[in-house]
Prior knowledge:
Layout: H1 6-9, H2 18-22, H3 29-42, H4 45-65, H5 70-87, H6 97-115, H7 137-151, H8 155-166, H9 171-178, H10 182-209
Helix pairs in contact: 3-4, 4-5, 5-6, 6-9, 7-10, 8-10, 9-10
Amino acid sequence: MSNWSPKVAAVPLQSLDSNNRTVRAPHSDANERELLERIARAKDQAAFRTLYGNYYQRLSRLLARMSVRREDIEEVINDTFWVVWTKASEFRGASQLSTWIIGIAYRRALNALRRAKLRPVADEAFDEDSISVESTDEEENNQQWLSQGLERLPVEQRMALELTYTLGHSCEEVAAILDCPVNTVKTRLFRARETLKQVLPQLAGMVGDKQ
């Protein structure tokens, strides 16, 4: 069971456990808007639990990529969903619901980074997978040097990559989440790709030398 912040503890969601978090309902935008409407209209706790479950792993991964400390990730997610719970009726539908929720999480994460003075996460690997799977040594090496390559990027470029290629947002949606022009997102993506082209072969060689 997670350690809820006092704010989120006001919403009786303590029944969520680690298994609940990995079970996701279909989360098309239409389905998620319906869940939000139920929260806004009747403070529907079942709808809230479902929406929370849909986003927990996505936000955990995103925050880890932002170098939010492990001990702060849960708090940022709790703060994000406190906003969702209290301001559900204020969502006007101008964007996809995922854009709104991830944008809230991004801004809360920036605040956490400022409080921590941009300290990176602990060296211990963050478990981003909802299900443990067996992987080969080669896959583990690839993941290792890819993660190291991403860590060398500025946070803004890392987020542009993660939101675009991992979470599947368009450049317009990423711009809304990061609160910047679309051309800025495209520039960040270009620079991130160029940097990775340079550093990934080097990092792959470094990993190979350790074998």
